[in-house]
Design goal:
The structure holds two protein chains of two kinds. Chain A has one helix and 24 strands. Chain A is mostly beta strands. The longest helix of chain A has 23 residues. By secondary structure, chain B is an alpha+beta fold. In chain B, about 15% of the residues lie in helices and about 45% in strands. Classes of the chains: A mainly beta, B alpha+beta. The interface between A and B is large, with 58 and 61 residues.
Chain lengths: ~350, ~350
């Protein structure tokens, strides 16, 4: 009889030895991870801790989650408030655990115990997470892999499940960071809406104004810009009636008054659509500060004259450019009066 | 016979019509206006006599079709006191134009592609001090109209060249440091700094305005952080606003766009951003200007200071009226009944006596 029992006992003991470790140690959490805000040596600033976990055994018994850091980490004693918002998009669908979370961080045991979870509402399928804000954890001063333990505990603090989450501390205090620098070049945008502008047929009884073209200027330079006009002839000239050009007025810093029956060829810039993002003021040179239909600015002979400037940046200024004409009844009949205007815009210095 | 004549006539008319249609001039699409972006601006160069200096200018054609662009050169001087250049065509006297070459000087710019133009200045050994040039980008073959005005456009990039010379004189004078008012209801206050270049080389001063209340620092403003220059023998006025206050006047926006008054000056409106409540300004403030420029050997400081007041008088008036009303209410509801009661008691006692 004894002879028969011995092999059975040996087999039973061997069989039991296979199961014994599993019985004596806790099971693992279904899923867990710890993401440190910083992986640099001895890093503290910005070193928040995102802990994610999926419960395994009796989730409705879990009341606390304990995070224990290995030797090398420094945990500051305190009661940091776990955040349950602002989770990253990966891993997906991190959910705030039910309940109002609080935590106790203990320097001596290098652990942070998060409690306040509503046990009855927990389940084993949801990926829960919380963030311990920076200021509690200081990374080790030695590079290498460290295993952080995350465990689920019941109300009394007894272990239910436990898992290990590895992190790697990099070789220097800033090896986990990338400095980003950028610069924006100053630029200057200039355009004209058309290449020609026609004044309606003039006579000695009325003042005629062209339909105008638009000058668009944009610059990101806070120094602003200035725009200039130059008339090739200082007048409208005709090949048919060369003896009677339509001459410009007096270039003296103030706009000329145009009266029907007198001869004047003038330039009338005005503000079109307002800029939507701009600084400084748009200022017209006194010669070209015209607010009505009976004035105009004279050309500076055949030289350049600044007519508008801005003292700041602008996404886009629209300046409408027109020519205004009155003629005396001695101006010869012709339909070929013409001139060439050169518009230049330059960023300020 | 008559029918034959009609038939021939009809044929001739048809042929003529066909010829006329066939030879009708093609309809030409109107050429769009010149439309470019240039970068950078302005360009500041410094070199020694006898050396060659280079810089790159970039230009982008923003029209949908390729554009032939020509690079040209003008000169500029100071105009006014706000850093506005005064552009001039070059004359025969401006021999420095012969030092300058562009590569390429004319090119076809595809749409929306940045093109780079290299500007090379071969500075002769007898060159000295400052040269102020404007590089222009314009259409190579501008259209000309037979009647009315042909309008040609170009964008200019300023180039300030400093050729080092022992006779270079770098000297700035602080002409004035002022605020637009002595008394403000609310911020902003605008500081105006006027400097004069008494030397023969352009200078770009920098520095700070330190604002304090009593001995307590309140704000530090950067002066000329963008590097605006002062040309020789000219003044330059810099304005610097201090708007870090609560409440404060800000530019009025309608549909996100700034609104101007009839003189094209920005319209202001009072804004109450309670997040800036800690920036409530009240009392006497001192602004100290500290400007530095490089005279070629060392940084030279220029200093000045001014004081101004911020008194929100409307708010103070409302406060005083409220205080008077509260005092009146206290008098009417609390003090007066007690006084009346006491008076009555005294009268009663007197009556008994």
């Amino acid at each position: 009889m004894i002879k028969n029992i011995k092999p059975l006992l040996v087999a039973a003991i061997l069989l039991a030895s296979f199961f014994l470790p599993a019985v004596t140690s806790a099971t693992q959490l279904t899923q867990t991870s710890v993401r440190l805000g910083r992986l640099g040596l001895s890093a503290t600033a910005g070193n928040d801790i995102l802990v994610t976990f999926k419960l395994n055994t009796t989730p409705t018994s879990v009341a606390k989650v304990k995070v224990t850091f290995p030797v090398g980490f420094t945990v500051a004693t305190g009661t940091p408030t776990p955040a349950v918002t602002g989770f990253p998009l990966s891993p997906t669908t991190i959910t705030a655990p039910p309940g109002t979370l609080t935590s106790v961080a203990t320097a001596g045991t290098r652990d942070i115990v998060v409690s306040g979870l509503t046990s009855a509402s927990l389940n084993s399928t949801t990926l829960y997470g919380f963030i311990i804000p920076s200021g509690t954890l200081t990374n080790p001063g030695t590079t290498g892999q460290y295993n952080i333990t995350v465990e689920s505990d019941n109300t009394g603090g007894s272990l239910i499940d436990s898992s290990s989450a590895p992190v790697y501390i990099t070789s220097s205090s800033t090896a986990d960071q990338v400095n980003v620098s950028a610069s924006v070049s100053p630029n200057f945008t200039f355009s004209l809406s058309a290449n020609s502008d026609t004044v309606p047929a003039a006579d000695s009884t009325t003042t005629k104004t062209s339909s105008g073209i638009n000058m668009l200027v944009g610059t990101n330079s806070p120094l602003g810009y200035t725009a200039y006009v130059k008339s090739a002839n200082g007048s409208l000239v005709s090949a048919i009636s060369p003896a009677t050009p339509i001459t410009t007025g007096t270039f003296d810093g103030t706009a000329d008054t145009l009266a029907a029956g007198s001869t004047n060829y003038s330039f009338v810039p005005s503000t079109g659509a307002a800029c939507s993002s701009c600084t400084g003021a748009l200022t017209y040179n006194g010669e070209y500060a015209v607010a009505d239909g009976s004035h105009g600015g004279a050309f500076n002979g055949t030289g350049f004259a600044s007519f508008v400037s801005r003292s700041g940046y602008t996404n886009l200024d629209t300046i409408n450019l027109k020519e205004r004409v009155t003629v005396a009844n001695t101006i010869g009949y012709a339909n070929d009066y013409a001139d060439t205007l050169t518009i230049v815009a330059a960023g300020n210095y | 016979m008559k029918q034959r004549v009609w038939g021939i006539s009809a044929l001739v008319v048809m042929v003529l019509l066909a010829v006329a249609v066939g030879y009708a001039p093609p309809v030409q699409a109107a050429t769009p206006g010149f439309n470019i972006v240039t970068s950078p601006l302005p360009i500041k160069l410094s070199t020694d006599p006898g050396r060659t200096v280079q810089t790159e200018l970039r230009v982008k054609n923003q029209n949908p079709d390729p554009e032939t662009i020509k690079v040209g050169l003008m000169k500029f001087g100071a105009q006014g006191e706000l850093g506005e250049p005064d552009l001039f065509d070059l004359t025969a006297k401006d021999t420095y134009a012969n030092w300058v070459t562009f590569s390429p000087s004319q090119f076809v710019a595809p749409p929306n592609t940045w093109m780079t133009v290299k500007m090379t200045i071969k500075v002769p050994s007898d060159a000295a001090l400052g040269y102020y040039m404007a590089v222009t980008f314009s259409r190579a073959t501008p259209q000309k109209t037979d009647k009315g005005s042909s309008v040609h456009g170009s964008a200019a990039t300023l180039v300030l060249l400093d050729v080092k010379n022992p006779n270079a004189k770098r000297e700035l004078q602080l002409v004035s440091f002022t605020s637009d008012h002595k008394l403000y209801e609310y911020l902003p206050t605008t500081f105006t700094i006027k400097v004069r270049n008494k030397g023969n080389i352009y200078l770009a001063p920098s520095g700070n305005i330190f604002i304090s209340k009593g001995n307590k620092p309140v704000a530090t403003l950067d002066f000329n952080a963008v590097g605006g220059s002062v040309l020789p023998a000219s003044n330059r006025v810099y304005t610097l606003p201090w708007d870090s206050g609560f409440p404060k006047f800000s530019q009025k926006l309608v549909n996100g766009k700034p609104v101007n008054d009839s003189k094209a000056h920005p319209k202001l409106e009072l804004k109450w951003n309670f997040g800036d409540a800690s920036k409530f300004r009240f009392g006497k403030y001192t602004a100290k200007l500290f400007v530095v420029y490089d005279n070629g050997q060392q940084d030279v400081p220029l200093e000045s200071s001014l004081t101004f007041w911020v008194l929100p008088w409307k708010l103070m008036t409302v406060g005083v009226i409220l205080l008077l009303l509260i005092l009146y209410a206290i008098w009417m509801l609390l003090v007066r009944p007690i006084v009346t009661k006491a008076k009555l008691g005294v009268d009663k006692r007197r009556g008994r006596a």
